[in-house]
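Q: Hi! Curious about what DMT family transporter looks like structurally. Here's the sequence.
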Amino acid sequence: MSNPSEAGSRTGAGPYLYLMATMLLFGTAFTSSKVVVGQVPHDVAAMLRFGGGAVILLALLLARPGSTRFSWRELCVAGGVGLVGVFAYNTFFFWGLSLAPATDGSIIVPVLSPILTILAFLLTGREAASAARVAGLVLGLAGAVVFFVGIGAGGLTGSRLLGDLGYLLAAGCWAAYSIASKKVLAGMEPLRATAYSTGVGALALALVASPSLSTMDWSAVRTSTWANVAFLAIGPTAIAYLFYYRGLRSVSPVTATITMFSVPVFGTISSVLFLGEPFTVVQIVGALITIVGALLAVTQGRRAGQRRGKREPIEASAARTAP
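A: Let's find out. The predicted structure is below.
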């Protein structure tokens, strides 16, 4: 069995740079997406973002040598993952944005995704249920409760709670996407996998948004909104999803989702500066508690399991399965 430290040294800093660049783009996406849903229906906003991103990714794929190689099996596998990570995730994400502040999403989605990921590993027996890991999960959930109490101090409404439910469902979709993508990447190179999954997900989003397209007053959409759509398609979609796939080739889904702890920093700063959204002290405390709990569950719990030797370290396994 490979030594985890040796596996990490072979991986190098490259995958983590890809993942951190992804999280920077994801953080700014909350603010930019909020601007878009302020002018167009949430389902249309999701379609515009990922439709544009899919076109860019497919163009890049077709421009590469050997792009004519095609496999229905690869399309079906990657497309199935795209239905979770692109269609379902963004359906809930943009629905949440239409009802709740972007700052809520920038905390709920990136912080709860790692917790849900490690919870899935625990339930399937792929990770040991150590005391540190269970304590981290409990602490993370407690922080989430404090965060929602803080929402009440900042103006609690039924629509905001419903929007935060959308964010929670989006976090679950992203956790499932990260776990499933690891298997997809075992047999596909990143650009092809990203293009296929984004394309299929974008088609599903377009089908859902089609009833809203005929009633849209496109002439009323501001130039600044179109600029945000272009940014979302290029940066947080085409580039970010490709970078995420590249990083996920060499690290485990758990490690990949750990980097999402940086998203609240980028997302909150962006939302406060550009949208002027309020952020209460209680929410800050709740977010910090949740982050600490998630880090405890994901990192210290894993080390405890490695010391006891009850489970194979995820990092060593990921290093061997990366193509």
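A: A fun detail: Residues 72-99 form the longest helix (28 residues).
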